[in-house]
């Protein structure tokens, strides 16, 4: 039986996607060992969740560094010391320097609230409504130096309703995010999903388009 996947989580906020990962472990769906939860915000809810679960935490505030690159290198040095197999960005609201993330390409994923490549960056719900889209969703992708531009692993989709505003759309999407992220991490933990030189492979075959959530499971 393979060893549990060693995961480090980076989060800036309340940590609801991190909580979804913890819940998947509690249900026996995910074999993972959380080795660190790191944040740029000392009051991040994710840190409190980690502390309650007995998971080591790290807070490094950007204000203590003259340059963004210096901060990122210092943060990732601390992360590397915990020897994670996978880094999960779960609401980490910083653009990471390319030199800092380069060693982790293929071992770092992010969840983003849009159907990438649409709406990289911030205010995705607002932008989808303003554009008149009929669908919205979330994506999990491998992290590269290009903002929200790494290879997309999987997506979850929901319809935009006539009465939706930014808040209601975000609220309806969040439970779907909480299904999507653990499902992707489960595949990585089971060695079914990886990033190779030619792109993403799923069960040893090239993944031509992102997986989709269907009835709570990821399908081609």
UniProtKB/TrEMBL annotation:
Specify whether Transferase is a keyword of the entry.
Answer: yes
Which SUPFAM superfamilies does the UniProt record give? Answer: Formyltransferase (SSF53328)
Q: Which UniProt keywords apply?
A: Purine biosynthesis, Transferase
- Please list the residues that bind (6R)-10-formyltetrahydrofolate: 68, 93-96, 110
Quote the Gene3D superfamilies the UniProt record gives.
Formyl transferase, N-terminal domain (3.40.50.170)
- Active-site residues from the entry: 112
Tell me the ranges covered by the Formyl transferase N-terminal domain, including all copies: 6-185
Q: What is its EC number?
A: 2.1.2.2
Positions marked as site (Raises pKa of active site His): 148
Q: Which residues form a coiled coil?
A: none
Spell out the PROSITE patterns in the cross-references: GART, PROKAR_LIPOPROTEIN
Q: Which GO terms describe its molecular function?
A: phosphoribosylglycinamide formyltransferase activity
> Which pathway does UniProt place it in?
Purine metabolism; IMP biosynthesis via de novo pathway; N(2)-formyl-N(1)-(5-phospho-D-ribosyl)glycinamide from N(1)-(5-phospho-D-ribosyl)glycinamide (10-formyl THF route): step 1/1
Xref: CDD domains? FMT_core_GART (cd08645)
Catalysed reaction per UniProt?
A: N(1)-(5-phospho-beta-D-ribosyl)glycinamide + (6R)-10-formyltetrahydrofolate = N(2)-formyl-N(1)-(5-phospho-beta-D-ribosyl)glycinamide + (6S)-5,6,7,8-tetrahydrofolate + H(+)
- The protein's enzyme class: transferase
* Keyword match Transferase: yes
Residues that hold N(1)-(5-phospho-beta-D-ribosyl)glycinamide according to the record: 15-17
Q: Which HAMAP family match?
A: PurN
Could you tell me what this protein does?
Catalyzes the transfer of a formyl group from 10-formyltetrahydrofolate to 5-phospho-ribosyl-glycinamide (GAR), producing 5-phospho-ribosyl-N-formylglycinamide (FGAR) and tetrahydrofolate.
Q: Give the family, as the similarity comment puts it.
A: Belongs to the GART family.
**Name used for this protein in its record:** Phosphoribosylglycinamide formyltransferase
- Give the species this sequence originates from: Dyella flava
């Amino acid at each position: 039986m393979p060893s549990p996947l060693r995961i480090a989580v980076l989060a800036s906020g309340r940590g609801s996607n991190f909580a979804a990962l913890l819940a998947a472990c509690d249900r026996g769906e995910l074999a993972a060992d959380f080795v660190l939860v790191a944040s740029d915000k000392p009051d991040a809810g994710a840190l409190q969740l980690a502390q309650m679960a007995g998971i080591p935490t790290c807070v490094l505030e950007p204000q203590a560094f003259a340059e963004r690159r210096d901060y990122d290198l210092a943060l990732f040095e601390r992360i590397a010391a915990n020897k994670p197999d996978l880094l999960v960005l779960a609401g980490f609201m910083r653009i990471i320097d390319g030199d800092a993330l380069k060693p982790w390409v293929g071992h770092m994923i992010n969840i983003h609230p849009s159907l990438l490549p649409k709406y990289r960056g911030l205010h995705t719900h607002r932008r989808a409504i303003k554009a008149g889209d009929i669908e919205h969703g979330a994506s999990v992708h491998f992290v590269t130096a290009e903002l929200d531009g790494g290879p997309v692993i999987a997506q979850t989709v929901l319809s935009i309703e006539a009465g939706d505003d930014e808040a209601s759309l975000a609220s309806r999407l969040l439970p779907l995010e909480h299904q999507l992220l653990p499902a992707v991490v489960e595949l990585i933990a089971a060695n079914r999903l990886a990033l190779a030189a030619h792109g993403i492979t799923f069960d040893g075959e090239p993944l031509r388009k992102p997986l989709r959530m269907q009835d709570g499971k990821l399908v081609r």
